[in-house]
Design goal:
Radius of gyration: 16 Å
Strand content: 15-25%
Number of helices: 4
Bound molecules: adenosine-5'-diphosphate, magnesium ion
CATH class: Alpha Beta
Strand order of the largest sheet: 3-2-1-6-9-11
Order of helices and strands: HHEHEEEEEEEHEEE
Length: 185
C-alpha cells in the first residue's frame, strides 16, 4: 500500500523533473563540465579500475566526457541494463557509442558480458533529487535501490546543485549514497 511518503515522493519527482526539463543545452554542458571538474578533484582515479556510470537521459548530468577520458586511460566503464523483475545489471563498453536504445529510452550497453557487482568499486548515480544525508529520489522504479541493496562499494550521487536539498521522504528500501557531487566545490 502506498504511504504518505510515496505521494510526497511523487510530487517532488514531478516538480524536480519540471525544473530539470527547463534547463538549456548550454546550462547542461557548462554545469556537467563543472561537475566533472569536482569529481576529478575529489576522486583518485588511480585507486579504481572498474567504474559504474550511466548514459544521461533527458537533461541528466552528462558525464560522457569523463567516461571517454577514463576509457582512454585504460579503465573499464560499465553501464546499467534493465532486466526483468525490475532488476538491473552492469555491462562494459569499450567505446561511448557501443550502446542501443533500451527500455525507457535509456541507451543500454550492447555487451552481453555482465560485470560481477563486486568488481565495480565505484559507481556514479544520477537522480532527480539527493538529500544532504545522501538519500536519492529516482524516477520511481526502485531500480538502483534493488541493485545497491547488496552493493558493497562506493556510491556517488551526481546532480546539479539545485537538486541537492535538505531532505527527501524515504522508505526503508531506499539506499543512501556515500557522497554527493555537484558543481559546487
Ligand atoms: P526511486 O528510488 O526510483 O525514487 P522508490 O524508492 O519510490 O523509487 O521505489 C519504487 C518502488 O520500488 C517502491 O514502491 C518499492 O516497492 C520498490 N522497491 C524499491 N527497492 C526495493 C527492493 N529492494 N526490493 C523490492 N522492491 C523494492
Ligand atoms: Mg528509492
Amino acid at each position: 500500500m502506498k504511504k504518505l511518503g510515496d505521494f510526497m515522493k511523487e510530487a517532488l519527482r514531478k516538480e524536480g523533473l519540471n525544473k530539470r526539463n527547463q534547463m538549456s543545452c548550454d546550462e547542461i554542458v557548462n554545469l556537467s563540465n563543472k561537475i566533472i571538474k569536482q569529481i576529478k578533484k575529489r576522486i583518485d582515479f588511480e585507486s579504481y579500475q572498474v567504474f559504474g556510470f550511466y548514459m544521461p537521459l533527458g537533461n541528466e548530468v552528462d558525464l560522457r566526457p569523463l567516461m571517454e577520458e577514463l576509457i582512454n586511460l585504460g579503465k573499464t566503464i560499465v553501464l546499467p541494463k534493465v532486466h526483468d523483475k525490475k532488476q538491473m545489471e552492469f555491462y562494459p563498453i569499450q567505446r561511448i557509442d557501443e550502446v542501443h536504445v533500451g527500455k525507457y529510452q535509456v541507451l543500454e550497453p550492447n555487451s552481453k558480458e555482465k560485470m560481477p557487482k563486486t568488481n565495480i568499486k565505484i559507481m556514479f548515480i544520477p537522480g532527480i533529487y539527493f538529500s544532504y544525508d545522501g538519500y536519492r529520489l529516482g524516477f520511481g522504479g526502485g531500480y538502483y535501490d534493488r541493485y545497491l541493496e547488496d552493493y558493497p562499494h562506493l556510491k556517488i550521487g551526481v546532480c546539479y546543485s539545485y537538486q541537492h536539498i535538505t531532505s527527501i521522504p524515504t522508505n526503508c528500501h531506499d539506499i543512501p549514497m556515500d557522497d554527493i557531487i555537484t558543481e559546487n566545490p
